[in-house]
Known about the structure:
This protein is mainly α and about 270 residues long. The protein contains nine helices and four strands; from the N terminus they run ααββαβαβααααα. The strands form two sheets. Strands 1-2 form a two-stranded antiparallel ribbon.
Amino acid sequence: MKPLVPLARSTIPMNRLPLLLFLLTILSTTLANGFHYSVALVSILLVHELGHYIVARNYQVEVSLPYFIPFPHLIGTFGAIIRLKGRIPTRNALFDIGVAGPLAGFFVAVIVTLVGLSMSTVAPTSGQEGVLSLGTSFLFDLLSRLVVGNVPSGHGLLLHPVAFAGWVGFLVTMINLFPVGQLDGGHISYAVLGSAQPFLAECTVWGMGILGLLFSSQYLVWALLIALFGTAHPPVITESSEATVVRRIIAVGCLILLVGLIIPGRIL
């Protein structure tokens, strides 16, 4: 007779958790808007996180695999995150790790949006009760006009699921570029501004609050969450280092990109 062995507590090995969450996110996004939408959106999120991952590993900074966040709602996910397990050596390294994600993800989002808009249709707005009306940013509207042209009065653009995935990709990029806390924009702004970054972060939170009061309550919710979790950024190992001129120029470009992605109105 074999000796009794106590059963180990049922847990998911941490090295398998990213894969499980990835598969669940494919499922949740497919259920939300279809398989084509899922493939397009997950591709944007995956490239975004791999941008961080590859650059972090290049700087020999220990980093986790991407953790996708499935959620059963209109979009089907709360995005994805990676965990930096060690301190960043220099401000240049912090900048490169922070900027790699949103720029890589945005590049894919632009391609996805162009493809999706080419499959979208223009239809009369009458008799379209129950159809969700989306807010639009300057950049998304610009791409829409380039691909579809001007939408006639009394008509609306019915986005193909792939185009909707691009719209969500723009939204995710916008949120990540806010220069606060541990968001990508927080990494970028701290790398460039150092000790002056908290002032910019506080101004950003107040600005998001104003956007929430004037336009969409989602900005207000994000501002409250950021204020709750903190706007400060941890220091790098070598604080005396400074971001190069080229990186400072790219940082200004990221700020311009953020402005172009802000939706001045109702979001969802």
